[in-house]
Amino acid sequence: MNQLREQLLNQDFTLLVSLPRNDVLLAEAALRGGAQGLKVHINVAHFASGTRFGSLDEERDSLAAILAVAQAANASVGIVPGATSGEDYAFASPDDFAQLAALGIDYFDAYPADAPAWTLTQNSLDVMLAAFNGGQIAQIQALESAGMRLCEASIMHHDDYGKSLNALDVAAYGELCAAITSPVIVPSQKRLTPADIPALKASGARGILIGAIVTGREAASIEEATRAFRAAL
Q: 127 forms bridges with which residues in the sheet?
């Protein structure tokens, strides 16, 4: 717990990779490319990757294998623990959080509307919440006061997924970063490129989280994309 927070606060800029499947081969590819942290999922259908992730029991062995290689590389691992909407999906329980912490998961990451209230005050996993499209700065500040310690800037509309990053996007990230003290990471809702890094740094973001839109879904493309971003850092 707190590994990613320490990374974000103490490093110049942090490169994280969201895995499109809970697959140790993909984790190894990202780490070879220079990822400093990984994100995995349970209980969710992931919009960007088009992939279903099963329950903790279904994904446990895969998570354990990913955590083993991440720990060997001193890389943090966070988890999206589910959603509260949809017929087939559910959010992890407090007992699941304790089990995830025991496995070595560092933090959870969720949209505020999906995160039950108890997640703000539990002591198993560090708290990352997503600033969201249409959300007000005051809401994000209130979430920080309530327990948020890390923020994912998931503020782009779904219609803009995969488009190039523009100056107005950078301004929106900057407004968020200026309004809260929690370190902010920018996910690749837009098709981020290594050339975008200086502008993202200038916005006040502390890192980026690249996923399927940028990395693709196979080991070779994940390693290649991650290596390109790490070289730019």
A: 108
